[in-house]
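Re: 2'-deoxycytidine-5'-monophosphate structure - here you go.
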Amino acid sequence: MKGWSLKDTKGFKGAESRGPTADLVIAIDGPSGVGKTTVAKLVAERLGLRAVSTGALYRAVALHFLRRGLNPEDLDEVREGLGNLEIWQEYTDGHIRTFLNGEDVTEELDTVEVSDMASRVAAIKEVREFLLDVQRRLAEGGAVVEGRDIGTVVLPDADVKFFLDATTGERAKRRYEQLRAEGEDISYEDALRDVKERDIRDSAREVAPLKRAADAIYIDTTHMTVEEVVNRILKILKEVVP
Ligand code: DC
């Protein structure tokens, strides 16, 4: 069976390369574990655009708070944490690399500790405002940007918006398989708990909760492979982009 792993993604059909898509801005939103980053990277690659993972930006802020021992519930500490902070992302050869004050921290962002802190800092208005500008600069000149509030808040004028969804059980399975493939010792039950907790936090927060934009194209990926999702998106883009 084909899983949700980048290893299984060769042989796409019907894709464009560079050209008229050069400055296209594509938003991909959806809940945790649905496979947004995987899909965004592949779509970007096929279209010759930059891929942006906004979750990794929140994770980089979280890592900064953890390293400095800052409490995200204390506004003075939040302001201290955001002062002189520089977060950036590069997309080269199909890889997204995230930088914290110039240091490449990509390999440190996928831990449970950073994940927990990321969902706490993501609920803070000041952090979201700080990253708004970073995200918009990253999208300049064309990009495939994935996150939770890209089509609603960050890039409401994006050329095409997608909302990827899947059942909680399927998303937990994908998360479990991804972490196992990366060598993490995690059980399916842990992955399920993680996805459920993040769903609650992402949807229940007051600032920019996970919400589908009215003009987003909804794709239920529960029974689809990565290839099918990417091909569906490329097909839709061919139809809707003049
Ligand atoms: O997609 P991810 O799991 O890497 O995201 C990390 C956290 O950041 C997660 O709690 C959701 C939050 N996030 C957000 O609030 N808005 C975004 N645009 C992207 C991520």
